[in-house]
Task: structure prediction
Amino acid sequence: MPDPGGVAEVLTRERTWRVLRQTLVQAALATTACVVLGVPGALVLYRRRFPGRGLLRAVVTVPFVLPTVVVGTAFHALVTTGGPLEALGLDGTTTAVVAALAFFNYGLVVRTVGTMWSRLDPRAVEAARALGASPARALATVTLPALAPAVASSASLTFLFSATAYGVVLVLGGPSTGTVETEIYVLTTQYLDLRAAAVLSMLQLGVVAAALWVAERARRATQVRLRTRTEVRPTRLSPADLPALLVTAATVAGLLVAPMAVLVTRSLQRDGAWTLANYADLATTGGRNALVVTVWQAAAASVRVAVVAAIIALVVGVAVSLLLSRRPRGRWLARALVVLDAVFMLPLGVSAVTVGFGFLITLSRPPCP
Result:
């Protein structure tokens, strides 16, 4: 653990506050973009019915589970030299990073807000319209206030995931887009400044805890509102839905589909010709044995690690769930369970870099006297 003097020294560095500011700004911009684009998407995908709605929902949900490095590579192929958006000069900019973060979390906002929207009683909006309110005013004064808990919950989680993003920032970011996450990695692996890395990890944990607290409060409010409501049958698209439909279509096509389409296209090309040679090379270690093992061997190792981790998480998770499902009579015991719940939820937002850094410190051997 860093000493108080060391903590003060790290906190007085201009670089520390610059990196923290960049992290918060990028996360805030990504969260704003997801909410602004996600609310119309929730309306179209959860309150309206049309052919292909199920497929569109699947397309919106898939990005949330894609590897960050893959997404970063896809957006880099979109904006780098030879990419469709090369002329915009977005390579290495905050705009590219924010777009990639929105790619990941757009589906989270759509699903969270859409689930609650699908259970809102339409009679409140109909009453407002009967009293002379325009569609926009009914949305602003009736619908959005009712959706506020779901919007707050999804926005908090989006901010959390954006603030702790690593792979996207590492692949897409330039000198002006570094975040706390990448800074911890650089301080640990390049500068061997474990004291500064530990301080930044504590700052990140504070941000994570605050975001999880807001998300948990909003989640409970959402559950209370949904407890006595049933899903409302979606209605057909109408001319009034055209703006929301256009925003959703543009978001899905431009933000979700385009980067992956460019990545797939490039994977099928070599030296300007269409070929499957890139896929055949997955069974090799690359030119001059650049890799230690083949991609397929690495994938098999990843699967083995994932299976073991899933088994451990399942066993521990079931045990903790049984404990947290109890309803103790004592006030202090009930509060203890709340704290325990928060402790087990905290790793949800702790980044892989911070976890790896913690294990590095914990498992490393102390220096010989």
Notes: Strands lie at 48-49, 235-236, 269-270, 273-274. The CA atoms of residues 38 and 317 lie 31 Å apart. The chain has a mean pLDDT of 84. The two ends are 19 Å apart (CA to CA).
